[in-house]
């Protein structure tokens, strides 16, 4: 029985660890060998001796890691020996360079998803379905009320909101994460022929990383110093951390929006602090979590990130054993 053999992934104080490969995945504390699923701050941290990540994510890692690091970029799908395992990285569809980690050892295959989504995203390679014996899935939005509308529908809502605010003589300030979401929005806006967009200075480096990687986005202008009249009618993207900053206040009265999967349900995080929520997420929604877990063919699933009880019960009803990790 495959499940009686030693696990290929265990949860430790430093994060997910693969004993036969002697490596960690997205470790929380410094380790010798870190396989990184993607560049978000809760996955890519400073201080590891060696980093292994998917090649399209190299520019992000270089921008986010301070100083010199031993970073090995590998191609999607290429197989590498690590300890006594064979590992390969496969697109997760989450942000540029995001990867699932496939680990093969002793006749077993485990796949660690990292963060992933199934919606199309012009800024990164689409999620690659993989078969596995054991699947370690994220479960950030693991409740049936999380269902995403098509992204292009949401971007059209944003354009309509921007136009309406402009007619009222207001700037539109849209808060979104500086890595992934901002670039996805800028790419979707480009596809709809949008005019240029203003961006908070903290976003410019990562936007340039995406441009260098060949991602087509609408033209952007950084806003170094706010101004009450100059930006009237403009669309300004800013990171959520800028919401209560003196920078944001410097624009005077503006219409505010927030782009996030959390905007899907009333009373969710951030909702009371903005005028308008837009449901756009870089994670899988409920339906896509269920579909993906089933597609892997895995008989056992471990879930990370968030309260997964509803998903555990749902999968159990379909004959798939699932556990929190
Ligand atoms: Zn992420
Ligand atoms: Zn995450």
Task: Write a concise synopsis of the structure shown.
With 325 residues, this protein is α/β, with parallel strands linked by helices. 20% of the residues lie in helices and 26% in strands.
Description of the structure:
It is a single chain. This protein is an alpha/beta fold. The protein contains seven helices and 19 strands. It has helices at 58-64, 151-167, 181-191, 204-212, 246-249, 286-295, 309-316; strands at 10-12, 15-18, 23-25, 33-35, 50-54, 70-74, 80-82, 85-91, 99-105, 108-112, 134-138, 171-175, 197-200, 220-223, 235-238, 254-259, 276-278, 300-304, 321-324. The strands form three sheets. A seven-stranded mixed β-sheet has the order 7-8-9-10-11-18-19, with helices on one face. The longest helix has 17 residues, at 151-167. The mean pLDDT is 94. One zinc ion binds next to loops.
List unreliable stretches of 5+ residues: none
What overall form do the CA principal axes indicate?
globular
Mean pLDDT: 94
Alpha carbon gap, first and last residue:
21 Å
Order of helices and strands: EEEEEHEEEEEEHEHEHEEHEEHEHE
Residue share in β-strands:
25-35%
Oligomer: single chain
- The counted number of beta strands is 19
Biggest β-sheet: strands ordered side by side in the sheet = 7-8-9-10-11-18-19
Main sheet specs: 7 strands, mixed
Structural class: alpha/beta
As a whole number of angstroms, the C-alpha radius of gyration is: 21 Å
Could you estimate the helical fraction of the residues in percent?
A: 10-25%
Ligand identities: zinc ion
Q: How many helical stretches?
A: 7
